[in-house]
Amino acid sequence: MDMFQHMEWDSVDDGLGELMDEPTYLSESPQSKSTASSISEHEFSCHCCYDILVNPTTLTCGHNFCRHCLALWWESSHKNECPECREKWEGFPKINILLRDATDKLFSEVVQRRRAEIQANPKISRSLLAFQRYGDNLGRSRTNQHKGAGFFFSGVLSALTCVAVMVLVYHWSYGVVEHDLLISKPVSRWTPEEVVSWLEQLGPWAQLYREPFQQENVNGRLLLMLGDEELLKAPYSIENQAHRRAVLAELDRVKALGVKPPQNLWEYKAANAGKSLFLLYALKRSPRLTILYLYLFDYSETFLPFLHTCCPAIAHIDQGVESRFLETQVKPSWRQWAEFLVKYCLLPYQLIAEFAWDWLAVHYWTSRFIIVNAMLLSVLEGCALWRLWTRARIRTLPRKMWNHLWKMLSQGFAFALLWPFVPQFVCNCLFYWALYFSPIINIDLVVQQLMHPETQAL
Question: TM segments (predicted)?
Fold first, then answer.
C-alpha cells in the first residue's frame, strides 16, 4: 500500500511538471488537470486565511503566509513570531519571489481577484503600511548601530552647531550688528540727519540732492509736506523727472507705513520678527502656499518686489538705475505672470534661489546658504514625487495635498497664537538655525534619499 501511494505521488509530481511546461496537454487530460489543481491549491494555500497565497512571505521557520495576513497578525499581536508554530523570526520577513511567481502563474485569476480585494480594503492597506514602516525603521536602526565613529562625529557636529547658533544670537542681539532705526521710528520724529540718511539709501543718484536737504534742515514733519511742486522748485531743484518720481514714490510708501520700509533681510527681520520666522519655516515646508499667502495679505510690500526680482521685465536702454524701485511697484506684465506661474507650479524653490541671488551683493554668505538650501529642497521634492509615481500612488496626490493644506493652516494658526509668548532669544535661535544650519540637515536627507530609498510596501 505504501509503495502504491509513493507511485501515485510520483505520478502527480510528473503531472504538475507537465502542467507548468505544456498547458495544451492539460486541455487534453481533464482528470490530470483536476488532480493537479487540487494538490496545488493545498500546497499553495496560506495557513491563516486558507486561501491562495498573495505575495507569499516565508519566515525563518519555513512557514508561508500572505503578506497582508502576516501584517494583520503582527499589528494585532505586536509579536515577531510565526502565527502557526510561534517561532520568532529574525530580521524583517521578505516576499518569496519564486513562490509568488509560481502562484501568479498557476492561479492568476484568483490572485488578481484577491489583490483587488486587498487594495480596496483600507484596514489591510493601513496594516501593510505600518508593517513596512516597521521594517524600514528596523533597517535604519541597524544601519545606525554600525556607523561607529561617523555616528559619534555627527553627534559632535550637531552639538557644535547648537553652540554656534547661540553664539550668533548673542553676537547679533546685543548691538554688534546695528539695524537702521528708521524702520521702527515714526517718520514724524525723524531728525534732519535721519532724513538725509533716508535720502542717501535711495541710491547713488540721491547724493546730488543731499546739500539742499541739509541746508533746509528738513526733518520728518517737513518731509511729509513735500510734493511734486516743492521738489521741482528751489531750493531742492530736482529737475530730473525720474529722480523726482523715485523720491515721491518712496515718500508715499513712508507716509503709508509711517516708518521707512525695510530694504534688506536684516531690516525686514528687525521690523517683522515673527513674520520673518514664520516665512522662513513656511517657505521650507510649503513654498507654494507661502507665496500664495504673500499674494493675498502682503501684495505691495513683499509679493510685488519678489515677483519683479524673480521674473524681471525687459529693461529699456534709456532706463536709469534710479528707476529700479519704480519697477518693483508697477503692475506686472502678462509675460512676467506667465513666467512666474510656471516656476510657481513646477520649481517654487527656484524662485527663492533667484530672489537670494539678486541680493548676493548685500547678503554675501546668507544668500549662498539660501541658494544651496533651495537646491537641496528641490531634490527632496523631486524624490517624493518620484516615489509617488513609481509606486502608482499618484492618484493619492489630491488627498495628500488636502492633508498638507490642513496641516499648514493649523500650524500657522498655532504659531500666531503662541508667538507673543515665545522669548525673543528662542525665536532668534530658531531663525538662525533655519537660515544657516538647515542646509546641513538637508544634505543628510538628500544622501539618504539617493542612497537608501524607501522600499515599496505592496
Answer: 150-172, 369-389, 409-435
Tell me, yes or no, if the pTM score tops 0.90.
no
Say how many Å lie between the first and final Cα of the chain, rounded.
46
Peptide bond into 235 cis (omega under 30): yes
Q: Which amino acid, 276?
A: S
Please give the Cα distance from 326 to 305 (Å, whole number). 10
Cβ partners under 8 Å of residue 92, min gap 6? 134, 135, 138, 139
| pLDDT tens digits for range 170-201 | 555 554 344 457 888 888 888 888 888 888 88
Q: For residue 81, report the phi and psi dihedrals to the nearest 5 degrees.
A: -140, 160
Phi, psi angles (nearest 5°) of residue 29: -125, 85
The distance of Cα 324 from the centroid of its chain, to the nearest Å, equals 33
- Helices 149-173 and 424-432 cross at an angle (nearest 10°) of 130
Sign of CA dihedral 179, 184, 185, 187: positive
Same domain, 196 and 210: yes
In 61-209, alpha helices (H): 67-77, 97-106, 108-120, 122-145, 149-173, 192-200
Q: For 178, which DSSP code? A: P
278/133 same-domain check? no
Which residues make beta-bridge pairs with 45?
A: 52
352, with CB counted inside 10 A (0-12, 13-18, 19+), is: buried
Same domain flag for 191 and 219? yes
Q: Looking at residue 391, what is its pLDDT?
A: 64
